[in-house]
């Protein structure tokens, strides 16, 4: 049955019929929220020990009531996004503020992901996608379950706004630990793509971050965030299961993760501008004169990354795009300036 925290609130200002007694000051509201959050934390740490459905039902209803009262009080006293304790006790879906990204779908020159036909080669570009439990009751619970499932979600303060965000570290980013550009933000349903482990001493990784987050074998995981929400279904539209089956909504409940690889039929594109401009990606702003668009057209990356993906055969020419092969050939021949000029010309024609 639902437990009452002996050290927490006695619900003196709360009844569960939807009414809250008058509280006089912001301090009173904060105090009541704090008591309710303490109770919620206690309940989450003491779930029913058995499998009785009725007992679990009462348990869930009890926690729903606590969170309903917190939500009601939060209308008077919103979460202080600079206070980590308040952020951790927030419901993820209530706390998230999805980034509004620039979109270049259908513009510039398009490419296709390279998907090896050889089974052994395909294994090397097949990765594990682990769903993020964004339906957790609190961000703290979301992070804890993620850790159980082998992913390290951090609640980190970003330098540009001084607020706490949930994010996965880009291990290759050498900037400051609280730099937004050094993290892939989680602000909607998504998976964390696990690409493999590397030494914490690797010269190309963020060694300062790695020293704090390495495992017992001095290894760190290379991960990224791939959105998979109803409005930004990048995972479902650009990846497939082993064997080519489509990814479905039910896969987002497979908390242990599942192997996926790129869908060779899902085009991506690139554009170029006369001079660098600030573009908003799903992870935050970047400044660049060349950028790519994912399968949904949302911008990411720069010319260096575009070139790297072509030279490493990660992306190939799209046979349905007359300019695609010419651009790829120029890059492979080392004619970067000519390639950018072509991309710039096509961008102007298609923007």
Note down, in words, how this protein is organized.
The chain is α+β, with helices and mostly antiparallel strands and 351 residues long. The protein has eleven helices and 13 strands. The protein has a five-stranded antiparallel β-sheet with strand order 12-11-10-1-13. Helix 1 (26-45) packs antiparallel against helix 2 (53-74) and helix 10 (324-332) runs antiparallel to helix 11. The radius of gyration is 24 Å and the shape is globular.
SSE arrangement:
Layout: H1 26-45, H2 53-74, H3 84-88, H4 92-95, E1 109-113, H5 119-124, E2 127-131, H6 139-148, E3 154-157, E4 164-169, E5 183-185, E6 190-199, H7 207-213, E7 219-227, H8 234-238, E8 239-241, E9 258-262, E10 268-281, E11 284-293, E12 299-300, H9 303-311, E13 315-317, H10 324-332, H11 336-350
Antiparallel strand pairs: 1-10, 1-13, 2-6, 2-9, 3-4, 4-5, 6-7, 8-9, 10-11, 11-12
Helix pairs in contact: 1-2, 10-11
